[in-house]
């Protein structure tokens, strides 16, 4: 008779997270939600500045294919004092990139607790929940909680309006140019006619 | 004591906020604990100070003195951990208090029309008339309670930065 093999306890399910800093505050995000981590300097070529007064947290946008990805200042989003960001997280399956101060470390969490119901305002859309790590509590951000569908709609509309205005300005410039060319041609014609007569 | 009087008696925990005492029904109290570190993170619910870790649970801290006395507490001696009902759910909330708490049996008088929503009744104890607090009106929570789904399951790792 063979001895019974010892029953292995199922391994605790964990999720890899990145702890990051914004104005001295630590947050966590699932590493699976982060598509790219880039330095802010690498953004400067591709990102275009935008100003939408109702959404001051959106500082830039980047064209990616047919879509625009909006770059959000995390400190302004969370109402923290502004600090110079050093890194950008491009968040997977969203149209959001996040300006942050830095990465603290990568670790894993084994338990995510729902945000207590006492928190009953905007923060419910910001966080997936809270996790306890090394005797501290860290909020775990919701990647799609930085811009609501309404805010995305407004930003898209603002960019479309800006693009239309730019197209109109371009058309006006071209029309003016065509008119100048026409006038010059007419002058030339008159001049030529005068010479032949 | 008659049988009728016994059934009218209920247990309450008396708590102290500054120089005033209030009561909460004892069946709503989980425990009284020493103050521990408050963890703070950005949010927009001004009535919540932060959270404490207690027995593996993350418990929000709500200073109810602001609403009851018109000013927040400068010092706190304990956290009274109470069970706050949200529809069919119950969650713990930690209420900072400034002194010892006491368990008493007393008869509660129902609130009057002039009482605020945070008053669920009145007690007479040791010569004092004491408000029994309605935690649902005193601590924040969503106005409409939808059943809270459990937090999303932990995600598999698909990518690394």
Structure description:
The complex is a heterodimer of chains A (197) and B (161). Chain A is α+β, with helices and mostly antiparallel strands. Chain A has 2 domains: 15-146, CheA-289, Domain 4 (OB fold (Dihydrolipoamide Acetyltransferase, E2P), Beta Barrel); 148-197. Chain A contains 4 helices and 11 strands. A 6-stranded mixed beta sheet of chain A has the order 3-7-8-6-5-4. In chain A, strands 2-1-9 form a 3-stranded antiparallel beta sheet, with no helix packed on it. In chain A, strand 1 (15-22) and strand 2 (25-30) form a beta hairpin. Chain B has one domain (3-138): CheA-289, Domain 4 (OB fold (Dihydrolipoamide Acetyltransferase, E2P), Beta Barrel), CATH 2.40.50. Chain B has 3 helices and 10 strands. In chain B, strand 9 (119-125) and strand 10 (128-133) form a beta hairpin. Chain B is globular. The interface between A and B is large, with 43 and 40 residues.
The H-and-E topology of chain A, N to C, reads as: EEEHEEEHEEEHEEH
Which fold name is given in CATH as the topology of the largest domain in chain A? OB fold (Dihydrolipoamide Acetyltransferase, E2P)
Name the structural class of chain B.
mainly beta
Estimate the global geometry of chain B from the Cα principal axes: globular
- Per CATH, which architecture of chain B? Beta Barrel
**Rg from alpha-carbon coordinates of chain B:** 18 Å
Whole-number count of domains of chain B: 1
Give the class-level CATH name of chain B: Mainly Beta
Would you give the CATH topology of chain B?
OB fold (Dihydrolipoamide Acetyltransferase, E2P)
Sheet with most strands: strand arrangement of chain B: 8-1-2-10-9
